[in-house]
Design brief:
alpha/beta, 16 helices, 24% strand, 5-stranded parallel sheet, 9-stranded mixed sheet, 438 residues, Rossmann fold
Length: 438
Amino acid sequence: MLHANLRDRTIYLEQLKAFRDTEMIKVITGIRRCGKSSLMKLMVNELRTGGVGEDQIIEINFESMRFSDMTAKEFYAYVTERAVPGKRMYLFFDEVQRISGWENAVNSFRVDLDCDIYVTGSNAHLLSSELSTYLSGRYVEIKVLPLSFREFLDFHGYTVTERKSPTGQLRKRVLDAEGESYDPKELYQAYARFGGMPMLADVGLETDKVTAALDGVYSAVVVRDILEREKRKGQRTITDSLLLRKLMMFLADNIGNSVSATSIGNTLVSEGLLENGSRKAKPATQTIQAYIQALTESFIFYEIKRFDIKGREYLKTLGKYYIVDIGLRNYLLGYRDGDSGHILENIIYFELLRRGYDVSIGKLDNKEVDFIATKTDEKKYIQVTESMNAPETRERELSPLRKIPDNYEKIVIAMECDLPQDQDGIKIVGAVDFLLDE
């Protein structure tokens, strides 16, 4: 039976189905509330409709009080007692990292039972050294992100249709449940304001309701995943919630800008965001690095590295950070106009990740290419810009791409563009069209 408000996340469900009944443990990771538990429920529904018996499915959510004090041994006993002899078992463990020593138990199920295992976790530490040691080569990570623009429309009751314009070009239209037509750009503005956390489909797109919902996400991530995380071997405990919030606001305000731990520390002090009075000195670079690591481990911020296109190597110099959800950025900084270029860049970065690309920043002499997106046999060089209409902007965006000495695809993604679709072999694509392409 499909859960009443369970909406499809085809892109991730297909990945899970591809590894069903293999010995690989399916590890579903991503920021809290991005839909990992719903994805597991979708997979359970998939099994039920495919004829798997109720007695073959064991689901445990470790966020529940019922399981909160369980030890790894009790966890092992609980599952093995419920395993049906002679039948294949399907095991679903939500937020499994809350159990100390869970890796032992999960590895034992793999060895002792005929089973197919699915686990979720809201912290990248889930896949750190211990798990890799126990399960080396025996797990596959499914990385779940908040909703894409296309999913956002679907979750909020819109459908995308195509029609031919009088000039023969295909134009996309968006219709609501009543058949009312909307300009896709108008809905993009809503996405760029409120973001793609799935639960917004239930609360509705009103600023106060969205703010309350995102406040819940913030608290869950910051309190449970960062401030409460136990002292781990060789890891600094994160204790200063004010510093953490200031750091989040700084990174959110600087998406798409090059930053380093040193420059962040200097800025926080010089802008008065951190008092030197209560702290005798600015927070040490190592402290800032530890806090940034906590933010990337809990999937709020993603770091992107630089790649030297000529030297063909990753550079150790300044990287950039993007925030996993633009709605969270607006929650932290306030809903304000401006900065739409960086917001678009942030949205395109995560869209590329969703489509399975590895993404880096390209450096070419003293010029920069926004993104190099690579898959096994594919590479694209991508510039992202607000508008391609002014001649000087056109030149700025096209010149780094023209200089790249290979024949891989080169694209400019622009929000506004009155130009031909191709210049010097470089494709110019409308941003909303790019996001609506499946």
